[in-house]
Amino acid sequence: MRIIVIGAGLAGLASALMLREDGHDVDIVTRGIGGLGLSSGTLDVYGWHSDGQPIKEPYAAIDQLVKEQPEHPYATIGADAVREGVDWLCERTGLFTQNSGTNVLIPTAIGAVRPTACVQNTMLPALVEDGKKYLVAGIKQFRDFPAQLIADNIARTPLAQVEARAVTIDVQARRPEADSTGTTFARALDGTAGLDGPGTRDAIVEALRSEMREGETVLLPAILGFSTDAYNEIAEELGAPVAEIPVPPPSIPGRRINDALTEETRKKRVDISLNAQVVGFEADGSRVSALKVQRAGRITTEKVDAVVYAGGGLESGTIERDSYGHIGERIFDLPLIFMDPEDEDARTVTGAVVVDGKDIFGCGVKVDAQMLPLAEGKPVYDNLHCVGSLLGGARPWTEKSGEGIALGSAVAATRALKKN
Known about the structure:
The protein is built from eleven helices and 23 strands. The chain is an alpha/beta fold. It has a five-stranded parallel beta sheet with strand order 9-2-1-13-23, with helices on one face. Helix content is 29%, strand content 24%. The longest helix has 18 residues, at 402-419. The radius of gyration is 22 Å and the shape is globular. This is Glycerol-3-phosphate dehydrogenase subunit B. It is an enzyme of class 1 (oxidoreductase).
């Protein structure tokens, strides 16, 4: 089958690769590189109950979640598809620890502790467990890692009995910069862009040796290279547990996932059209027969047997709010579902979150088990499969389910197309 995937985030890249592995002819059309650079680099399946308590077994808890929230995407995706998707990503990238089915606790960019299903191997020693001692090591030239705040918050977490203290080391990624980005540090540690990889790694090791105490796990910002070579060398040289913890975007761990999946698409001959967008379509009855794709100022008509729509939601512009306040999906004019607000007075820097009594950030497309968008309970098109954050009915940022929805819906769409 000739399939076009719209979008190159986690759901789009995963869908394209899964479909290609099934033997389909697959291309990706995307305006940009997707949202993985904004992610923490962990895999969230289902982390928090609505009462604020952490979830220990996320796959087992999905059944109860969909009973409480029947509009949730997991109701049609199913827990087995979510687990299959997470297993698939762990196997394809080689970046992650084993998908045990049990959540672990990991520090965030400010030291708050949260549950997640899988962490990257470079983060494994950071897992928050009773009795651990942490040395949170900030870098003077990297401002997006408040070491003392992180250490204080880790030490006071109610989820485990741990100790944490903070130090700040002096390491220049690129002279004479006094304030370098995470990307610059990653390049320096990798030794790319003309930067001194061995020298930067040695500088971190030497600065930490005099600060470490026996039995401590060293926590560093997650900027230790786009490959894991620098991390491995630093951990070996220090002879102690070393771990990365997430920092604000751009996310180096997220970039690792993106790079691994993008490289797989190249190997499997999946074409990615960047700086391109779908501006229209043609339909033959209940089927999408072609997409209108704009590239470099010209519009071409691309014939398709099926479409996987992974363009994201409100945050990506796939779902738009016009000057009259109308909220709609921009390409196919798909009907949307909305969630009731958690806070009627919620606002962001761009204005109200609640419009006409509905939470605009909880909106999205409702789908059936084949990921086909529904209108009044029936598929709008028989060959248009919606995946990822385009799906409505969930708050992945609060319940921590984003990667589970992305990967599970990719599996469900792939299964549906395999049957066809």
